[in-house]
Design a protein that fits this description.
The complex is a heterodimer of chains A (164) and B (114).
Chain A (H helix, E strand, L loop, with lengths): L1 H20 L4 H17 L14 H30 L8 E6 L5 H12 L4 E7 L2 E6 L7 H8 L1 H11 L1
Antiparallel strand pairs in A: 1-3, 2-3
Chain B lengths: L1 H24 L3 H26 L6 H28 L12 H13 L1
Helix pairs in contact in B: 1-2, 2-3
The chains are: A mainly alpha (164), B mainly alpha (114).
Chain lengths: 164, 114
């Protein structure tokens, strides 16, 4: 069952990418479908990572909200880092902090780690079990709880619904 | 529309410039990575997006969306790998560093093994 879900999701993803690359033409779609099926069959022995995605109206809604939250954070982070770079005093206060995540699935954690890297002054350095080690350009709280709250929680509440 | 695209492209290149400047000014590997990852990601996104809406007639909007997605997914992964490798080969953090939990835990783990 998990394998089937993974296969279907993988097929749909590949098809969407194919359509974005080419056009909605019957011949091209056929080739794309054949190629996608071959890829799905080739990867059937691998771990079904995509099956962690939950498919219900709430999770789809949250994915869309997440995209916007993410884009907002991305722009904010860039402006923040840009200001640090151009200000003559170089106002940085760096350090590596440890945060804890509630997410269980590997895909969800991968998404979280990537999101952290792209947002204000944080860079994921290492991941061990449920702890992330994050390089923070401006350390404002040194304990695990405080750091978790200000770095992770914002994304986690969306990713929790999407990936579980 | 072409003007609008050109402005967005310009903003994108500005971010790329700031990223380059950041790599120059930051004191250690990790902080450089910060400037290098973020500024280049948004810079590239703006740059590509500006091109796609500035030249709508080329019909490359879909391709550029795919490119943006790939940049967004792969850029953090590569910087994560670099930062991790840097920490594991023992590159020192700058003197202005407040704390290093990873180093502390590494020492703790070693102590437990012995």
């Amino acid at each position: 069952m998990r394998k089937l879900k993974h296969s279907i999701l993988l097929f749909l993803t590949l098809m969407i990418f194919w359509i974005l690359f080419t056009s909605l033409d019957v011949q091209e779609l056929t080739i794309g479908a054949i190629a996608s099926i071959i890829i799905v069959l080739m990867t059937i022995g691998l771990k079904p990572v995509l099956s962690a995605i939950k498919l219900n109206p709430k999770s789809i809604l949250f994915s869309i909200i997440y995209l916007f939250v993410f884009l907002k954070e991305l722009i904010k982070s860039n402006i923040d880092v840009a200001f640090r770079v151009i200000s003559p005093k170089l106002p940085i206060n760096p350090g590596i902090v440890k945060v804890k995540t509630k997410l269980k699935s590997p895909l969800g954690r991968a998404f979280l780690a990537n999101s952290i890297t792209l947002t204000p002054g944080t860079l994921t350095v290492e991941m061990r079990d449920e702890y992330f080690y994050i390089h923070w350009i401006d350390v404002t709280s040194e304990n695990i709880e405080g750091a978790t709250k200000s770095i992770v929680s914002n994304f986690e509440k969306y990713l929790e619904v999407i990936f579980g | 529309m072409e003007l609008f695209g050109a402005i967005i492209t310009l903003i994108g290149s500005l971010f790329l410039l700031l990223g380059a400047l950041g790599i120059f000014r930051m004191p250690d590997v990790y902080n450089r990575m910060q400037a290098g990852t973020k500024a280049t990601t948004l810079g590239t996104i703006f740059f590509l997006f500006g091109i796609s809406i500035g030249h709508l007639e080329c019909g490359c909007f879909g391709k550029i969306v795919v490119l943006i997605l790939f940049v967004m997914f792969t850029n953090p992964v590569s910087s994560n790998a670099l930062a991790r490798a840097a920490h594991f080969t023992g590159i020192k953090l700058t003197d202005r560093t407040k704390k290093d939990d990873l180093e502390k835990d590494n020492i703790k783990n070693k102590g437990e093994e012995k």
